[in-house]
Design brief:
10-stranded mixed β-sheet, 26 strands, alpha/beta, globular, ribonucleoside-diphosphate reductase activity, thioredoxin disulfide as acceptor, RNR_lg_C, nucleotide-binding
């Protein structure tokens, strides 16, 4: 716990006699947190799921014995700094935590946050203890940058702005690229740009914002392809009254139609396919900023004006309901656009005198001023569940106030990508504390996610978090001053805090536990108002709910952000590379909370392990089924259940919530309209949906899913053709066009000319010699192969001849080479072993070698990278660029890349001879650390603790991880890879 003393600090920033008095709640004076845990040494070896090659390897790393293999893998590969294999490389969690915490403590001392040296030490120990025990985590940029020679970028979320000038538009491209290069995400509103229906001063017609989106999309796609930290993440917003709103809404749904047409014509339009790059607008999330006026017109069925950007005159009046239908149809077809509710966002705005809130970060949780940033931190809620299944509110309060203090200190020393972002962030000091593991907490305490009890506890905890954060912010204002923009926004900020407190009073509790936590929250809001009236607040905002992708895995969380559990059964990784199905650990905890005896629990757990759900589980009462409802599966939570949970916690957040409402493939356009309307009526700030199987560019998981998607498209087509009320000039999306027509396509053989270029390669694999001859079309492209092994007339020679003929005919009928490569690489049989090819040092079979060689000769680098195949020269360049010392970093905003994306055979190239040595066999651990002690092995063989799992079931259209190839899982409105920790957005 902490308390404030004094009123201000000297203008120089040096510590005065005033400051925070820190009371220890988790630590003991004179005992360092590191001395209270048992440490063990591990070997971290992470492999590519697709081909078994080593992505990352670091041996002899040190972690507490209670950290899972998965968490230590991710932290080692993502967050440890320094060139691998050198003394500069971090090798212990102690070094990582010290690098960050000691930087915070030093800045706190310098800027007058602590009352004494003893308080600074207490702050250091308390913060260290919470990070060590996975109670919370800062967002990833903190771990990437703080305490390194790189710029001290601590923010994961940025909002930019763009004006109606070419200079501003080109500057948008530049600033966005710098932020992407640093591993963060950005969003902006394009509504200031004139529409294509307005004139330029020269007399010509303006291009409109959608045309400029093309350039930004191409830029993001290029940076995404070359990025080493995570892929580019961006948000594009357009106001609903912009004259180009229909074109904006339809951009991605029209591209989805293009994908279908190209796929049916034989082009490779799968995720990562060679032809998918021709599709536009795929690198951003799109959102429409709707006003209360527009939503009221939708409900009333009246007209709505689209207005010119320069003078505000009405250019066109449309039917609001028709436009809303168009938005829903587009979202049904391709999941974009989402909705941002402008009236609600700005009604809760603490700084309206400094400008309206017009945009968000890529995941929609950070909503504040243009050209600003927000650094995030998230608490692991399961750490506050006591053995008696009650929530430890006192420990939670102590953690929140300490974390808010640390987050505010970071702004004192942080670097930012542009001068304007630097100025506004330092003037308003936006923070974003949030949490993860809500779904696991509710299940472990026997509360259904979609229930009054689940929502009441979630609301009480969220209210307690934000009330404490605002109270701490007010106390900080009394010591180091309110944020610079507070004076001009004082009345609005006080009004918003009063609104939060009033919402707290309106929460309907279900049981004594909810009431107890809510009572603690009421006290915090009372203190926040009293201290804020006296001193103001240090931060313009304090809380939001982020996706917590990578950091959630690092904290061993079962669930991310506000999400429920994904599924009851997951895949557990074991030492040595094996895996096994296990039932989530929260299931036994929930059964104990419900009062089931141990023998009944065992039977239920066994049933769930076999069937994946609880329906008809022996001894489980039907009224308890809802406790075990998950995001997917036989008893999936309904879409409206997700919306209701968001609505329960939204009034207690300064920002918004990163969450996508998943809908089944059978959902209709009307269902999407209902969700988007409910989001406005329930007071959400932002909402996005995703209908399973709506994207062609992502694979269907099973036949049933494909049939559901086809049935849904047919139903929508029928609905679109049915008579309806006349609507405005808005042309609805042609949903009928989405219904796929059965067309039979017959491949045509393209024979090679009589004279064609060819090359012959001699090879040796495991002592077996052979020759590969490949013939090409004159205009490029492999057309035939001949494989010579053994003597003519032998069985082996005959089999290889037949195989080569089959491959050649397939190539001439249009089967892509990469399809063969993906199937035949990693095929294992004798002969296998060392080769005489410097680009492919080790092969698992003749087939493995031949198709790796063909890929190297006939596929471009991008396609080979997706397959995990690279030449010796490419591997050398990758090592040189990825393993450079942080001291060599010169870019102003470059976040050091996590050294996890080594190409497929990088480890073999670096030490192929060593891999072949009997004394040091190459590790094949499927992403799991090897060489653990007996205690760790024993722990690996029991039910997995939180975080030591890979999901066995995922949403149908989850993308593949761009680093290791594993199917990702949702994390808010982004995705996270549980194998390596990579995310598709901010965390």
């Amino acid at each position: 716990m902490t308390e404030s003393r004094g009123t201000k600090a000297g203008r120089s920033g040096a510590r005065t006699a005033t400051g925070l008095k820190i009371r220890r709640s988790r630590t003991t004076a004179g005992v360092h947190p590191y001395d209270e845990v048992t440490w063990e040494t591990r070997d971290v070896v992470m492999t590519n799921w697709r081909d078994g090659s080593v992505n990352f390897e670091q041996r002899g790393v040190e972690f507490p014995d209670f950290w899972s293999v998965n968490a230590s893998n991710i932290v080692t590969s993502k967050y440890f700094r320094g060139a691998p294999g050198t003394p500069a490389r971090e090798s212990s969690l102690r070094q990582l935590i010290d690098r960050v915490v000691l930087t915070y403590v030093a800045a706190g001392r310098e800027h007058g946050y602590f009352a004494s040296d003893a308080d600074a030490e207490a702050f250091e120990h308390e913060l260290t203890w919470m990070l060590l025990h996975q109670v919370f985590s800062f967002n990833s940029p903190v771990w990437f940058n703080v305490g390194t020679p790189a710029p001290q970028q601590v923010s994961a979320c940025f909002i930019l702005s763009v004006d109606d000038t070419m200079e501003s538009i080109l500057n948008w491209y530049r600033e966005e690229g710098l932020i992407f290069k640093g591993g963060s995400g950005a969003g902006l509103n394009l509504s200031r740009i004139r529409s294509s229906k307005e004139l330029l001063s020269s007399g010509g017609t303006a291009s409109g914002p959608v045309s400029f989106m093309r350039g930004a999309d191409a830029s993001a796609g290029t940076i995404k392809s070359g990025g080493a930290t995570r892929r580019a993440a961006k948000m594009v917003v357009l106001d609903v009254d912009h004259p180009d709103i229909v074109e904006f809404v339809e951009t991605k749904s029209r591209e989805e139609e293009k994908i279908r047409a190209l796929r049916d014509a034989g082009f490779d339009m799968d995720l990562g396919g060679r032809d998918i790059a021709s599709v536009q607008y795929q690198n951003a999330n799109n959102s429409v900023r709707v006003t209360d006026e527009f939503m009221t017109a939708v409900v009333d069925g009246t007209g709505f004006d689209l207005r010119a950007r320069l003078d505000g005159r009405a250019i066109e009046t449309i039917d609001a309901k028709g436009l809303f239908r168009t938005i829903a149809e587009a979202a049904w077809a391709c999941a974009d656009p989402g909705i941002q509710y402008d009236g609600t966002i700005n009604d809760w705005h603490t700084c309206p005198e400094s400008g309206r809130i017009s945009a968000s970060n890529p995941c929609s949780e950070y909503v504040h001023l243009d050209n600003s940033s927000c650094n995030l931190a998230s608490l692991n809620l399961l750490k506050f569940l006591r053995p008696d299944r009650t929530f430890d509110a006192d420990a939670f309060v102590a953690a929140v106030e300490l974390i808010i203090t640390a987050m505010d200190i970071s702004i004192c020393f942080a670097d930012f990508p542009t001068p304007e972002i630097t100025r506004i962030t330092r003037a308003y000091r936006q923070l974003g504390i949030g949490y993860a593991n809500l779904g696991a907490l509710l299940m472990a305490s026997a509360r259904a996610y979609d229930s009054d009890g689940g929502r009441a506890l979630a609301a009480a905890i969220t209210s307690l978090m934000s009330g404490t954060a605002y109270r701490r912010s007010a106390e900080l204002a009394g010591i180091v001053g309110a944020y610079e923009g507070f004076a001009r926004n004082a009345d609005a900020h006080r009004r918003v805090v009063r609104k939060h407190a009033a919402a707290n009073d309106e929460v309907r509790t279900v049981d004594a536990e909810d009431a107890r936590v809510l009572a603690a929250a009421s006290k915090e809001w009372s203190k926040a108002q009293a201290v804020g009236e006296k001193h103001g607040w240090r931060n313009a905002q304090v809380s939001l709910l982020a996706p917590t992708g990578t950091i959630g895995l690092a904290m061993d969380c079962d669930t991310t952000g506000i999400e429920p559990d994904l599924a009851l059964v997951k895949m557990k990784k074991l030492v040595g590379g094996a895996s096994m199905k296990i039932v989530n650990q929260t299931v036994p905890a929930a059964l104990r909370a419900l009062g089931y005896p141990e023998e009944t629990m065992e039977a239920i757990v066994e049933y769930i392990a076999e069937h994946g759900h609880v329906i008809d589980a022996p001894g489980l009462r039907p009224e308890h089924y809802e406790v075990f409802d998950c995001a997917i599966g036989e008893r999936a939570i309904s879409p409206m259940g997700h919306v209701r949970m968001m609505a329960a916690v939204q009034p207690f957040l300064s920002g918004a919530i990163s969450k996508t409402v998943n809908m089944p493939a059978t959902a209709t356009v009307e269902d999407v309209e209902e969700i988007y309307l409910a989001g406005w009526q329930l007071g959400l700030k932002a909402l996005a949906i995703y209908r399973d199987n709506c994207k062609v560019g992502q694979p269907l998981t099973d036949v049933r899913g494909a049939k559901q998607a086809a049935d849904a498209r047919a139903a929508a087509a029928a609905s679109a053709s049915a008579p309806s009320a006349p609507s405005a000039p808005v042309a609805p999306v042609a949903v009928a066009a989405l219904a796929e027509v059965e067309v039979e396509y017959r491949p045509v053989r393209r024979r090679l000319p009589k004279t064609r270029p060819s090359q012959t390669v001699s090879f040796t694999v495991g002592g077996a010699e052979g020759y590969l001859t490949a013939g090409s079309y004159p205009d490029d492209g492999l057309g035939e192969v001949f494989i010579k092994m053994s003597k003519q007339g032998s069985t082996l020679a005959g089999v290889m001849d037949a195989f080569a003929i089959a491959i050649s005919i397939g190539l001439q009928y249009g089967v892509p080479l990469e399809a063969y490569v993906s199937k035949f690489i990693n095929m294992r049989f004798e002969p296998a072993g060392m080769t005489d090819d410097p680009d492919v040092r080790i092969a698992q079979s003749i087939m493995d070698y031949l198709f790796r060689r063909l890929a190297l000769d006939y596929l471009d680098a991008d396609h080979r990278a997706e397959l995990g195949i690279s030449s010796a020269a490419e591997r050398t360049r990758a090592v040189a660029s990825q393993y450079a010392s942080p001291a060599d970093t010169t870019a102003a905003v470059d976040v050091p890349a996590a050294p996890v994306s080594a190409p497929a055979e990088e480890a073999a190239a670096a030490g192929g001879e060593r891999s072949a040595s009997p004394a040091a066999p190459a590790p094949r651990s499927n992403g799991v650390a090897v060489g653990l002690g007996p205690a760790q092995v024993a722990r690996e063989l029991r039910l997995a603790p939180p975080g030591e799992t890979l999901v066995a079931q995922t949403v149908v259209d989850a993308p593949l991880c761009f680093t290791c190839g594993v199917t990702m899982r949702p994390a808010g409105s982004c995705y996270v890879c549980e194998q390596c920790g990579s995310t598709s957005g901010c965390s």
